């Protein structure tokens, strides 16, 4: 069995967290991931209401036998009255406060009896999160699916963060690009306490995504993603500029990504002509989303999409990544042989 201080503390069978993912990461997905022995998390999007959050947290806790968590987008919380109160009432094991300053919410998370986590994209961000009082620093590499300020890949960032916080009393987890047991073994061997895994769950039947979006993930290669603000600028989603989203690349993204500055200008302009141009592109995106046309509509996913080859249940994904990681770590331990120079 693979155990770390983090997985032991939470009573998990695997050092795996099912990362919060607004959209696919519903209470149902969280509950099956937790039920399989990892820690499932509910992803709360920027437009989620208190009522929606209550329903999802109920689903996460009612079906799962074990502990579960929830992840919010800090920049959106001021416009989401009651969401943090609902989370406090539900008493999750861990609350991820990402994409903004976690400091104002940490006391409330601790009052709920939960660990406070935050995803970071640089060593400087990790230091800030530790100074703010988080218990769990989640290294989120640039290859991760969804939104982040990531320009540094998981491995160099993990090494830098572990060096920077080695004397602090925090758990360091690693996310971004972990799609198999090999990836989990790599980050555990480097010193992470668990893998924070999102994309590998996107094609599971329990993920709350349209079937054709799952098919797009299944057919994507590791080179088929793009880190872009295009979908947020066109869709009018208020993500701060420093957090583009990693999504599957498609003709729409490839057309508009080089014209991102123009889209941003149209979005900010008071001129009716600019507003008209943006509205036309938005209409195209809205129609395509309804029609599930992923040549235009967005599927947020990371480079690990290239490792998702078939539809498997979420519990099976947990078990295969966890059990394979254990095998790879045992094999790696065999690389350490006695040094013959010191044998009698
Ligand atoms: C579809 C999707 C939606 C996501 N939504 C959120 C979110 O709402 N909140 C959050 O903290 N992270 C979100 N993330 C990021 C994940 O928590 C995590 O960092 C990432 O999935 C890890 O990298 P991987 O996708 O390579 O496994 C999302 C990721 C994906 C793929």
UniProtKB/TrEMBL annotation:
Keyword set, alphabetical order: Flavoprotein, FMN, Monooxygenase, Oxidoreductase
Query: Does the record bear tRNA processing in its keywords?
Result: no
> A GO molecular-function term, please?
nitronate monooxygenase activity
State the organism named in the record.
Actinopolymorpha cephalotaxi
Please report the name of this protein according to its UniProt entry: Nitronate monooxygenase
**Enzyme Commission code(s) on record:** 1.13.12.16
Give a yes or no for keyword Flavoprotein in this entry.
Answer: yes
Membrane-spanning parts: none
Entry superkingdom: Bacteria
